[in-house]
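pinned: reference chain
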Amino acid sequence: MNSVILRNEIQEKINEIKEADILVGIPSYNNARTIGHVVKAVHAGLSKYFPDKKAVIINSDGGSSDGTMDVVQGATIEDYKSILVQHRVEPVFTIATPYQGIPGKGSAFRTIFEIAAALNVKACAVVDSDLRSITPEWVELLIKPVLERDFDYVLPLYHRHKYDGTITNSIIYPLTRALYGRQVRQPIGGDFGFSGKLAKFYLTKDVWESDVAKYGIDIWMTTTAIANNFKVCQSFLGAKIHDAKDPGADLSAMLYQVVGATFDLMEEYPGVWKKVKASEPVATFGFQYAVGLEPVNVNIDRMIEKFRLGVKELIKIWEGFISRDIAAFLRRSEDLQKESFHIPDEVWAEIVCSFAIASHRKIMNREHLLKSLTPLYIGKTASFVIETRESDAQQVDQKIEQLCRVFENIKLFLNVNWR
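pinned: its structure tokens
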């Protein structure tokens, strides 16, 4: 893949800017409807909180056909005085560039890392281009821990609806926490801050022609930072409200991508995660407050039906790598009525670890293996919805905390069977 900074028009911009203190990257693909708001919020945040710093906004676009890049170039702040404490000393530069190579968020991020390295920036942030809840304060909360507290990686901490982000809540957060020993609540949040030093480190990694460049970049960034002992924290950003994902999209593909990337990282860092015995909190910045959240509709009957169908069709495949007890439990669960439908945390944690071990041992086609996790994940989500229908946010958090402890307790099972 050719380096984007070798292109003449990008090199001219870099030569013009020479060096910068802060870079904010906004990867995009057909986000003309929302990206103007995001650029304005970022611009306002840089102006308000870092008026004496030289800043660059990078829009790394994946070939949008809806005028996304034109919106970026045209986005301006109408009334500085109403939102700014003081006028900027340094101008904010904006570069909008199409990235080249494998389409996907990872390729966009590589472009952002390359420009950050070329400009020798001290602190960077990346934010999603479909955000409707971003405020100028997000820029401060993602950048300040890097500039002023010497952190290398700042994860987002959001309030989300209890049925939003269920892949994170049921698999990625508990597994990442158990593996690497850091309690980072949103390891695949999408909006991050990081040091120029970490951006340069990411560029040394040989992943840019791999699946990571198509998907899995968020969990790759998080795991790479933690596993290589970079200083990690999280900042509370309030609510994350963004463009709704297509409910008709293939859930198994999404699960395959993010779980597959997580399992790939287990292959890269067994020497790190096998030594981890427990987890510890990370420093958290930002004032936490209650937020109004958009409702998430869940059809429990349909989810349980998908689980039952999956068990009927796939149980013989699963029996090749799950324990007899788990297989017997799944067969019994087929007949449970909705009100008594329940997948215990201990069963779920063992299922996820068994899939990780099966993937490691290459016992079957990896894509088929990981996509077969989908009905089990849907069943676990249905179980969670049934258990938490009357629960408030605090009770839901306690339930997720309980699941994380179960994953930490089953770590020995993972270590012993990983060979």
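why pinned: The chain has 18 helices and ten strands. The beta strands are 22-28, 55-61, 92-98, 123-126, 153-159, 182-183, 192-195, 232-239, 280-281, 283-285.
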